[in-house]
Amino acid sequence: MKLSVSGRASAVAVVAAVTLVATGSIAGAAPAPEPVAQKNGAHPSLALAAAPDIPVANVKAHLTQFQSIATANGGNRAHGRTGYRASLDYVKAKLDAAGFTTAIQQFTASGRTGYNLIADWPGGDANQVVMAGSHLDSVSTGAGINDNGTGSAAVLEAALTVARTGYQPTKHLRFAWWGAEELGLVGSRYYVNNLSAANRARITGYLNFDMIGSPNPGYFVYDDNPAIEKTFKDYFTGIGVPTEIETEGDGRSDHAPFKSAGVPVGGLFTGASRAKTTAQATKWGGTAGQAFDRCYHSSCDTTANVNDTALNRNADALAYAVWTLSQ
Question: How far is it, in rounded angstroms, from Cα 251 to Cα 236?
Fold first, then answer.
């Protein structure tokens, strides 16, 4: 998640798009997913047996790879650095092998080349597009495993689960990993600004996942679009986890350019530098008076800086929303 506008210099993007497309065979199967319907009996009319459980071990395996990439590339995965491009190449290779159509979108920000990665799952109504995305870059001071390896890894594993299960939704599915978010939402803004009005109108919902495994977690849901908000809340109600409306990062992540362009948006968040209150600790556990993420934008944002329970719940909520909103 980017710093507030007042706390950083503005970033200027001078852009030229480059598209690279590759496809391949479906990756090896992972453990059989558990239907969400088994967990959320409160909504049998939605017939969501196809909405899978996302294996948190698979998500954590991606985080381990992001950590290894950062360690091998100066300790970070920041915009314009080798660690960012290696992270993008890792994600792209997984998607290509799973049968996605992938495209790399290139731009320039703060004198360095940046990249977005877009992955489309073949099929579905091209006039009704459901997108899920996250920013892939870290700050320059650390590996960025919670911020935002967690969102990036969960979106990746959800996409791979689409392929693994052979899911064929009514709507078209698109997944995205954004560059230069930490410089001011540069990559996602470039993507949105370069969509035609017709293509923007085809996006029925953009779901954003930024910091979904904070070590002292809260469970926060964006309140931007009522239908998307309700979808996430329904999932958490079904597993008995209370939520609150997200306010700490409002407008500070990659949903903001979509919202400004009139696209319905929603998303999940587990907290950053704000301190957890006593009431929140009573509700969710954890430590009152301590930041949701004490390693926010710091060198200690490593694989040790992730709460597995929060990561697991949010990854499953991600899948639930993607499956629900794309049918």
Answer: 23
Q: How far is CA 170 from the centre of its chain?
A: 22
Q: Identify the bridge partners of residue 326 per DSSP, sorted by sequence position.
A: none
Burial (Cβ within 10 Å: 0-12, 13-18, ≥19) of residue 165: middle
What proportions of the chain, in percent to the nearest 5, are helix, strand and coil?
A: 40, 20, 40
The whole-number pLDDT of residue 249 equals 86
Is 244 one of the annotated active-site residues of the chain? no
What per-residue confidence (pLDDT) applies to 9? Answer: 36
Residue for token pair 């600790």: 281
Q: Active site residue: 34, 157, 181, 248, which one?
A: 181
Where helices occur in the chain by DSSP H, the ranges are 56-72, 82-97, 151-165, 186-193, 197-202, 226-238, 255-260, 278-284, 308-326
pLDDT at 317: 98
Residue 98 structure tokens: 């799973």
Burial of residue 139 (CB within 10 Å: 0-12, 13-18, 19+) is buried
Pick out the chain residues at pLDDT < 70: 2-50
pLDDT of residue 50: 60
Angstrom CA distances, 25 to 42, 93, 123, 129, stand at 37, 11, 16, 24
For residue 158, which amino acid is it? Answer: A
Task: Say how far apart CA 93 and CA 159 lie, in whole Å.
Answer: 13
pLDDT digits (tens, 9 = 90+) for 16-39: 333 333 333 222 222 333 333 333
Residue with tokens 């964006």: 222
The predicted pLDDT at position 250 comes to 86
What is the spatial distance between Cα 272 and Cα 134, in angstroms, rounded to a whole number? Answer: 16
